[in-house]
# Entry
Amino acid sequence: MTELAQKIIAGDRRALARGITLVESQRADHRQDALALLDALRTSGREALRIGLSGTPGVGKSTFIEAFGTFLTDQGLKVAVLAIDPSSTRSGGSILGDKTRMEQLSRNPNAFIRPSPSNTQLGGVARRTREAVAVCEAAGFDVVLIETVGVGQSETMVASMSDIFTLLIAPAGGDELQGVKRGIMEIADLILVNKADGELKAAATRTCGDYAGALRLLRKRPQDPDLFPKAMMVSATEQDGLDAAWAAMVELSEWRKAEGHWQKNRADQAVHWFEEAVKIGLMARLEASDAAQDAKRAETDAVSSGTTSPDAAAARVLDALK
Amino acid sequence: MTELAQKIIAGDRRALARGITLVESQRADHRQDALALLDALRTSGREALRIGLSGTPGVGKSTFIEAFGTFLTDQGLKVAVLAIDPSSTRSGGSILGDKTRMEQLSRNPNAFIRPSPSNTQLGGVARRTREAVAVCEAAGFDVVLIETVGVGQSETMVASMSDIFTLLIAPAGGDELQGVKRGIMEIADLILVNKADGELKAAATRTCGDYAGALRLLRKRPQDPDLFPKAMMVSATEQDGLDAAWAAMVELSEWRKAEGHWQKNRADQAVHWFEEAVKIGLMARLEASDAAQDAKRAETDAVSSGTTSPDAAAARVLDALK
# Structure
């Protein structure tokens, strides 16, 4: 693994792709190699700015990433784009599977676009993407964009592997405004109102004001400097506001680094994923036991229909495992 | 346990208090009896309206519960008040420990007030309170109010044992508004702006409008009829708006019952607590192993400082358990 790690750190694109394929592999015999690779890559000491980006279909996420990614490479930065696609757990399909979505960026030598891994479990997709982020970081990318659509738990997962979490929304008027998933304002560092151009400019201004107002209702978090989280307007098609959005991200990340929140956040995230991995490993033992699985199915029905209490049911499942 | 269950179902107040003490007991030999009691009480088939209520210190939570509880008993309803106090995990103290906080209600024969159980773990407090809710329900209370202060995960826990979750807030002006914990608007069914009286009336009207606007930005949930979740004004000291708040709660719960959301929510909550109990039981096995605990401490340090990957660390902890 040391050789592959060295090639990745040296900037070899084919080694990078092979490394990501390895951490994404579902074969049990690849897992040991993947963990060894990640430990070897850790020696690079490199850190990218990890930017999480969420938005529902139709907000112009691909167009924004294309424009923003190109803006960043124009500044001399190297940009990787990864994705977590919650729908891939069902369909096997993946967002970003079609690179023509971001034609310009995908041909850019300073950009690297990787489709979402497909997997049967969202938790598994998240682990693989988190490890792919670490591979890109060691490969010397300055910015890693992690994209997701706003479905289920995927935003929380992206936020828990990002330094900055950005929510992209579309302008809307009046009753159309019920578009933001509950819980998302909780984790957003930056809300970007896209399509602030042409006919939609006025609606975008109103929408931006509405979200700025809603953000002010929330209690301040320790990891936020004054005026953050904030709502801003951008136009991906006119490439307008991208510089201001990037300046806000840099300001936020530099403040967090200076105040110690950056490192603390990364350490907390790593411990969180570690604890999750322990829980998943314990649950896997339960899942490997036919007796426990039979008990769990029967007890779930009993609990759901109200014929037994959750704790009594859980005790019986645990007894079946022993 | 059958005799105690029969007395509780018959409305015996001392049996009720004994039943709750039993489910709250931390003694391992009481646990079997507690589970048997809960299964026996389940035969009553009674259902209360479980109302979760959260608010930061200073919003007038005690005054509201006193006024609202008295309003409900005046309608001929029997009301139980329980609490989850996240601070009791540290201090051993408890909110509602001092019944003089609600002097009038505590003397009311149709009301029952129980202080928050103290425990070393918030998860443990939540389980005990959830079971105390079931005991009160079997005892024939029409409404069970479950109170918490807005700290940590306690609101989510209260919401996951409530049919309706209510957030109580105080009026404020301009920059003072940063009072709502992130994530709470996600779970609120009703936001009540308290102290809508005297000098604060105008500020309450503005605050109520601000929250109504913020709620409109959120995507509609399947379990909400038109115009819900909503923000309303109340004055606990002037007993103003309590009837409208209660009418909204009744409207919401009847709609949810008619549409099947009520039963589905209760079944989902029971399954959630069951799955949590299984996880907690599995984690308890890890905690009972000295070798696994030693490994977990060492690996947490390594993960936190970035010298190993979360998954490699987790694999070593699980190996130590085996």
Summary: Residues 261-287 of chain B form the longest helix (27 residues). Chain B is about 55% helix and 10% strand.
